[in-house]
């Protein structure tokens, strides 16, 4: 009799635990859940608190409302910021999974919805990264609305997100990982020295080749790196002792071509991909670095060759 009582209590507890786990965000960065546990017509509220993460909604049903409120450094949210995302300018980007299906993703800004990603039953073209900004004091959220279907099997609405503060000046507020305006302009000496201090990667190397992707409107620069000063993630790697290989992306309209000589490549990492920032010839960087060091105006030290 006792065994039967334990069994009848344990099964409901397992069901409750499974439901709670399916809609949890243990690391406060990512969320994975199922629409099968939602009530018809309900809107599940989700809040994540990291600068990057992901969402995966299995068998979409009903709706989700996602607020992103990362705890950023005070320098990232501008003057007067408290270090919390609600006090300053934020730029955010979402990258839908190639198999994004079963829902539509909207930007909710002060109660008005703007479509970011539509339902993609055919997935004929790669999904585009969509970016948007939030001004100080604005109320912004992401709203996912399930698309009505008789059969919801094999439908998964998933995307990755990144949030940045004002320090990512070249991020687009529309649909590209980098800003069209100014993205192709050569950096001046001050911008080069700051890029060395603040970039996700700083690499000395040579251009092996440039591949153009018309669909994504990007150029992929194949780089042989002779010196990796700094990198976020293993962007440049290889078995060679003297050189490592990696790829850097930039806008197709910048017209990057193969070029001889050594360059200093800097830039940002977006969704695991390296995007080009400043890329002076290495001799030009050495000149600017030497002058700033003599004048004691160098923003940060970089190990010399």
What is the topology?
Blueprint (H helix, E strand, L loop, with lengths): L1 H21 L8 E4 L8 E6 L3 E7 L4 E6 L21 E7 L6 E7 L2 E6 L12 E5 L5 E7 L9 E9 L15 H4 L5 H10 L2 E13 L4 E14 L12 E8 L11 E8 L2 E4 L5 H13 L11
Strand residue percentage: 35-45%
User: Quick check: average pLDDT?
Assistant: 78
Shape: elongated
Number of helices: 4
Poorly predicted runs are 1-26, 75-83, 166-179
- Helical coverage, percent range: 10-25%
- Biggest β-sheet strands, sense, barrel: 5 strands, mixed
Number of strands: 15
Distance between the termini: 78 Å
Strand order of the largest sheet: 1-3-10-5-8
| Estimated radius of gyration | 23 Å
The ordered H/E elements are HEEEEEEEEEEHHEEEEEH
| Sheet/helix structural class | alpha+beta
Description of the molecule:
The protein has 305 residues and is of the alpha+beta class. 16% of the residues lie in helices and 36% in strands. The chain has a 5-stranded mixed β-sheet, with no helix packed on it. A 5-stranded mixed β-sheet has the order 2-4-9-6-7, with no helix packed on it.
Characteristic key phrases:
elongated; five-stranded mixed sheet; 305 residues; 36% strand; alpha+beta; 16% helix; single chain; disordered N terminus; 15 strands
Brief account:
This protein is of the alpha+beta class and about 300 residues long. The protein has helices at about 1-20, 180-185, 190-200, 280-295, and strands at about 30-35, 45-50, 50-60, 65-70, 90-95, 105-110, 110-115, 130-135, 140-145, 155-165, 200-215, 220-230, 245-250, 265-270, 275.
């Amino acid at each position: 009799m006792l065994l039967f009582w334990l069994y009848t209590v344990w099964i409901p507890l397992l069901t409750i635990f499974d439901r709670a786990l399916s809609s949890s965000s243990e690391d406060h960065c990512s969320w994975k859940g199922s629409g099968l546990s939602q009530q018809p017509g309900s809107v599940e509220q989700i809040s994540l608190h990291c600068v990057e993460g992901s969402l995966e909604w299995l068998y979409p049903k009903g709706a989700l409302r996602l607020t992103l409120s990362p705890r950023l450094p005070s320098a990232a949210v501008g003057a007067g910021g408290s270090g919390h995302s609600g006090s300053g300018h934020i730029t955010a980007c979402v990258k839908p999974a190639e198999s994004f299906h079963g829902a539509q993703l909207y930007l909710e800004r002060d109660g008005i919805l703007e479509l970011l990603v539509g339902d993609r039953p055919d997935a004929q073209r790669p999904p585009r990264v969509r970016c948007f900004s939030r001004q100080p004091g604005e109320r912004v959220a992401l709203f996912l609305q399930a698309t009505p279907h008789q059969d919801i099997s094999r439908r998964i609405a998933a995307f990755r997100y990144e949030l940045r503060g004002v320090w990512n000046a070249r991020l687009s507020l529309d649909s590209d990982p980098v800003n069209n305006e100014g993205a192709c302009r050569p950096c001046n000496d001050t911008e080069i020295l700051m890029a060395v201090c603040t970039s996700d990667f700083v690499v000395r190397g040579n251009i092996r080749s440039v591949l153009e992707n018309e669909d994504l409107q990007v150029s992929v620069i194949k780089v042989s790196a002779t010196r990796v000063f700094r990198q976020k993630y293993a962007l440049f790697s290889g078995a060679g002792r003297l050189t490592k290989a990696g790829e850097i992306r930039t806008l197709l309209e910048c017209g990057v071509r193969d070029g001889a000589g050594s360059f200093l490549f800097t830039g940002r990492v977006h969704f695991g991909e390296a995007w080009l920032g400043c890329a002076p010839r290495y001799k030009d960087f050495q000149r600017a670095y030497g002058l700033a060091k003599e004048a004691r105006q160098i923003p940060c030290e970089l190990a010399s060759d």
